[in-house]
Amino acid sequence: MFSKMKNIDTAFRHVRSFTMLVITGCILISCFSLYKSFSLVSQMQNKVYILANGKALEAYASDRKDNIPVEARDHVKTFHKLFFTLDPDDKVIKSNVTKALYLADDSAKRVYDDLKENGYYSGIISGNVSQTIQIDSVTIDLNNYPYGFRCYATQNIIRTTSIAHRNLITEGNLRNVSRSDNNPHGFLIERWNTIENRDISTENRK
Questions:
Q1: Is the pLDDT confidence value at 14 over 90?
Q2: 6, 16, 41, 78: which has the highest count of C-beta atoms within 10 A?
Q3: Angle at 174 (CA atoms; ends 83, 73), nearest 5 degrees
Q4: Contact present, 159 and 132 (Cβ < 8 Å)
Q5: What's the alpha-carbon Rg for the chain, to the nearest Å?
Q6: What is the pLDDT of residue 27?
Q7: Which string of b and e fits 156-195 if b means at least 16 CB within 10 Å?
Q8: How far is CA 174 from CA 15, 76, 96, 130, in A?
């Protein structure tokens, strides 16, 4: 009788140990599954799918601090391209300048008003002159806020008989603002100033 009780007790301990082992394994598997599920959901939330020309393109979301240098340089480039790309068409000039002025404060508006008052845009139209700009480089100082920048560019002034190339260097500050359709980068150029704008060369058109 005692031997049977001992065997039953031993069997019970074995069953209990096995049961605890199974329960522990189930808990570990459940925890691992939950961890992987949350991890996968988090990764999926950082992905954005864009439909372009009937094709789904995958994009990844990231913190803005990771993209500040890229976005800041592109903001400065976009502003200069809009402000300095001119054709002998009043509507084109107004459209480009209006878009540019959304990206900067009144320092850019004052430059535009001065050029307009001095007849610069009228001369562009009457002389059938086109003006393009090539951005050579943009430097951003991220150690201080507002972020200081300096833009190095080349202006090309295309006339009927010649093409003039001018060196252009500007500087200013970048302040964070809300993003919008008119200002997708969420920066505002402040204290914009032209440091240098001089002729480099002139070539005759054939």
A1: no
A2: 78
A3: 65
A4: no
A5: 32
A6: 84
A7: ebeeeeeebebebebebbbeeeeeeeebebbbbbeebeee
A8: 71, 9, 20, 29
- Listed in sequence order, the residues at least 6 apart from 175 whose beta carbon sits closer than 8 Å to its beta carbon are 146, 187, 188, 190
* Contact assessment for residue 158 and residue 134, using Cβ atoms and an 8 Å cutoff: no
DSSP state of 182: S
Q: Which CATH number fits domain 65-204: 3.40.50.300, 3.40.1190.20, 1.10.340.30, 3.10.450.230?
A: 3.10.450.230
Nearest in space to 195 (alpha carbons), one of 156, 150, 138: 150
The distance between the two most distant Cα atoms of the chain, rounded to a whole number of Å, is: 120
For residues 174 and 141, the answer to whether their CB atoms sit within 8 Å is no
Q: Where are the domains of the chain?
A: 1-46, 65-204
Question: Distance between CA atoms of 169 and 171, rounded to whole angstroms?
Answer: 7
What are 172-201's pLDDT values in tens digits? 999 999 999 999 999 999 999 999 999 999
The residue behind tokens 């995958």 is 58
Q: Based on DSSP, count helices (H) and strands (E) in the chain, helices before strands.
A: 5, 6
Residues in Cβ contact with 136 at an 8 Å cutoff, skipping those fewer than 6 apart: 152, 153, 154
Least confident among 14-23, 50-59, 107-116: 50-59
Higher-pLDDT residue of 34, 54: 34
